[in-house]
Specification:
Largest sheet of chain B: none
Number of strands of chain A: 2
Strand order of the largest sheet of chain A: 1-2
Largest interface: A-B, 65 and 62 residues
Radius of gyration of chain B: 19 Å
Oligomer: heterodimer
Radius of gyration of chain A: 30 Å
Number of helices of chain B: 9
CATH class of the largest domain in chain B: Mainly Alpha
Shape of chain B: elongated
Helix content of chain A: over 70%
CATH topology of the largest domain in chain B: Recoverin, domain 1
Shape of chain A: globular
Order of helices and strands of chain A: HHHHHHHHEEHHHHHHHHHHHHHH
CATH superfamily of the largest domain in chain B: EF-hand
Order of helices and strands of chain B: HHHHHHHHH
Distance between the termini of chain B: 32 Å
Number of strands of chain B: 0
Strand content of chain B: under 5%
Chain lengths: 612, 180
């Protein structure tokens, strides 16, 4: 950015300075600076040649090892060429690049943000599957017991039966320390399990935190005053769009929006009479009570259904078609509630007649979030408090199976939703009821579905280590189905979505209720719950965390690892350390807040100076 | 993928890679797109730097640009002669700035030049009026266009001179995260 300014203001005389500056930078910085220059290619090439001459001149001054510097430069050039061809191969890893470009061209960046979010979630799942498979499953294969159950086709849907004795679930993993060769290197399965899962969550936490902070920084900090007309006119034209129909639609939208804005300015703020305001408040209150009531009713329904579900398992297996089908009732009902209650909420929103369409969208999304959080919350409560303390043989595998079925049925409902919501709606809109027109792609609802599916997967990682692999496949299929459905059935969005802010909100929703909730559930499971006696890597221990505690005790007798023990006792389990850390974090936050306030006053003063 | 191509010398390719955001493969692909617009005008051998210029009509007919309401301004801003007729250098330059790898302030600089119809380094009211008409396909009445332009200048003009300078424009871009 600073080179942009230098180039504009100083004109010709700074060219020598510029060349000098560029020559003194490292190669990669120099290339970046030249690429960013707002000049024609000819000018940039001239400058580049001058800079290269300057560099060779400089190196000639520094000692007379002419041949050495020349061969150094030659090797540098060939390294860069090698690096460039390597990066071309890395571009092959950017899967779906072409599909994303096509979607962006035809529908704009708001719809594209959903697909980018889907791709981002997919990378989380691929990463988890890879590390779980390498560190937990492959060693398990070495000491696997043969599977005595038979495979019937229905297992793919219910996750029970044959799959119960496979690496899919927690119960199959051994608690032994695996050694192939006598007195050779050993592999402690317990530690591997808990550390792999723990490390994955720590890495996810850091990635989410940094992405969210970066996105927030770019998109929200300067929100204050300039969301007005100027930016709407000059900054929201989506240069990404190349499709003629989409361009015409976008132009029409912009003109409609400008007309609306102008008439809003002309119309004074409508003053409601006291009676009308009271009526509006009552209507809002009633619809909130209705939506919260529906959410509570849905939770109660799910809870009682799951208690009944548990009775099926504790009574023992009957492995006939009826009991297998009965296992599917809970996920079916949960997905059904998740699909149809949002329509009820949209209908409520239409009844309420909000002042701006933006309010309507936000309130509907908030209600959907509350519904989904409550359903996941009640399921977690059921798993942690009821299944874990029941008399079943291997409660972790039961929870894993429940999550497997939920994920699978959610996936099927997602595909069906696409079929009914978009395909049939298009047919209705074009043949029977032409006034409806083509459907639009409902970004908010689809993103919430993704976050819900990802929350379930994250909860399930501890109980079913290969679940992320299944979710990877399901997300890939969802991508293709949604893309085909979008291209065939939908029209570009009519409302202007503030894309960058919505993307930040999606990430925030993923982090805050979803990931933090998952961390709490996993935390309670690892610290408080007693693992089952007969299965899994933690059998016989009082809690899953006890494996780490025992390992530390074992290390205490082993002198070279005393530092690990010291770190454990004084940093990880000590309350004082976390207290000091929190106080430090609060102090730093306060200081940064004061700096921001100071800068705000500075900006105001400078603004006044520019005007005068 | 190897060093077998004979269109450019290795030094020319290095220079292109340093001056644009593209990799070697992308530069060659863009060259073939450029050539496909007029195979009889563009030679396959650029090692001797031939001075070939393609007229604006061919550039404006590219699928990426043909529906863009600002295609003529884009071609004018990036062409050497200011009329929209582009050499290969201008062509690569244009796509480099329009690509997703270009940083926002570079795009903001060129967006300013695109919106500046009379090339006086300021976006004045007449520039804004032309912009609004292009963005809305002439669907607004002249009074509405006038109102919109006045509001935009009122909001974005920081130094109060009645027109938008590059700084005003960039100041606005920083606050509008949706800018592409």
């Amino acid at each position: 950015y600073c080179y942009l300014k230098i180039w504009i203001f100083h004109g010709f005389y700074a060219e020598e300075d510029l060349v000098g500056n560029l020559a003194s930078m490292s190669t990669s910085e120099r290339i970046k600076a030249i690429q960013k220059m707002p000049e024609t290619m000819k000018k940039k090439r001239e400058i580049r040649n001058k800079v290269l001459k300057e560099i060779t001149k400089k190196s000639r001054h520094h000692g007379s090892q002419l041949s050495c510097t020349q061969c150094l430069q030659g090797t540098a050039v060939s390294f860069r060429r090698f690096g460039n061809s390597l990066s071309e191969y890395f571009h092959l890893l950017r899967f779906w690049h072409r599909a994303l470009k096509m979607i962006g061209a035809k529908f704009g960046t708001s719809v594209l943000s959903y697909f980018i979010f889907l791709k981002w979630l997919l990378t989380f799942n691929i990463f988890s599957f890879l590390i779980n498979f390498s560190f937990i499953t492959i060693p398990q294969f070495v000491v696997a017991e043969p599977n005595k159950l038979s495979f019937m086709g229905l297992e793919l849907l219910t996750g029970a039966g044959y799959f119960q004795q496979t690496v899919l679930y927690y119960g199959f993993y051994t608690n032994a320390t695996i050694t192939k060769i006598k007195n050779g290197p050993s592999y402690n399965m317990q530690l591997a399990y808990i550390f792999t899962v723990g490390l994955y969550f720590v890495i996810c936490f850091l990635i989410l935190l940094f992405s969210m902070a970066k996105s927030f920084c770019r998109n929200f900090i300067n929100l204050q005053t300039y969301s007005g007309n100027a930016s709407k006119l000059l900054c929201t034209w989506d240069f990404n769009i190349t499709n003629e129909k989409a361009v015409k639609l976008k132009q029409k939208n912009l003109s409609t929006q400008i007309k609306e804005d102008l008439t809003e300015v002309n119309r004074e703020v409508v003053h409601f009479s006291v009676k009308e305001r009271a009526v509006r408040i009552v209507i809002h209150l009633v619809s909130w009570i209705a939506s919260l009531g529906t959410a509570v009713a849905a939770c109660a329904g799910v809870y009682f259904l799951s208690i009944n579900n548990l009775k099926l398992f504790v009574k023992g297996h009957k492995n006939d078609l009826e009991s297998q089908a009965a296992m599917l009732v809970l996920p079916f009902v949960a997905s059904l509630l998740n699909t149809f209650i949002p329509f009820f909420y949209s209908w409520l929103g239409h009844l309420e007649r909000y002042q701006t369409p933006g309010h309507h969208i936000y309130v509907t999304i908030a209600r959907n979030i509350i519904l989904k959080i409550s359903i996941v919350g009640i399921l977690c409560y059921y798993w942690v408090n009821i299944v874990a303390t029941s008399e079943s043989q291997c409660w972790e595998t039961l929870v894993g199976q429940d999550i497997y079925r939920l994920v699978l049925v959610n996936f099927i409902f997602c595909l069906l939703g696409s079929f009914f919501g978009e395909f049939l709606r298009r047919i209705i809109g074009t043949t029977f009821c032409v006034s409806l027109g083509l459907p639009e792609f409902d970004i908010g609802r689809n993103v919430l579905d993704l976050i819900y599916a990802q929350t379930l997967t994250w909860i399930g990682i501890l109980f079913s280590p290969l679940l992320p692999g299944i979710q990877t496949i399901s997300f890939s299929i969802v991508f293709y189905v949604k893309k085909v459905s979008l291209m065939m059935n939908c029209q570009p969005p009519r409302k202007v979505w503030k894309t960058a802010q919505m993307t930040t909100s999606f990430m925030f929703l993923l982090f805050f209720p979803s990931f933090i909730g998952v961390l709490s559930v996993i935390g309670v499971t690892v610290w408080r719950l007693k693992p089952s006696e007969g299965c899994g890597p933690f059998r016989g221990l009082p809690s899953m965390y006890a494996a780490v505690a025992e390992w530390i005790k074992m290390l205490e007798n082993h002198t070279p690892s005393k530092w690990v023990v010291w770190i454990y006792h004084n940093l990880i389990t000590s309350v004082l350390f976390f207290f000091i850390l929190s106080v430090l974090a609060l102090i730093i936050t306060y200081l940064y807040w004061q700096i921001i306030q100071g800068r705000k006053t500075m900006i105001k003063l400078l603004h006044k100076q520019i005007i005068n | 993928m190897g060093n077998k191509q004979t269109i450019f010398t290795p030094e020319q390719l290095d220079a292109y890679q340093d001056c644009t955001f593209f990799t070697r493969k992308e530069i060659l692909r863009l060259f073939y797109r450029y050539r496909d617009l007029a195979p009889q005008l563009v030679p396959l051998d650029y090692t001797h730097k031939p001075a070939v210029t393609l007229p604006y009509e061919l550039i404006g007919s590219m699928p990426e640009l043909k529906d863009n309401p600002f295609r003529q301004r884009i071609a004018e801003v990036f062409s050497e002669d200011g009329d929209g007729n582009m050499t290969l250098d201008d062509f690569l330059d244009m796509f480099s700035v329009l690509s997703e790898m270009a940083p926002r302030d570079l795009k903001a600089y060129y967006a300013f030049k695109i919106y500046d119809f009379n090339n006086d380094d300021y976006i004045c009211k007449s520039d804004l009026e032309k912009t609004v008409n292009k963005l809305t396909r002439n669907e607004l009445t002249p009074e509405e266009v006038n109102l919109v332009c006045e509001k935009v200048i009122y909001e974005a003009d920081v130094d109060n001179d009645g027109k938008l300078s590059l700084e005003d424009f960039q100041h606005m871009i920083i606050r509008a995260p949706d800018f592409l």
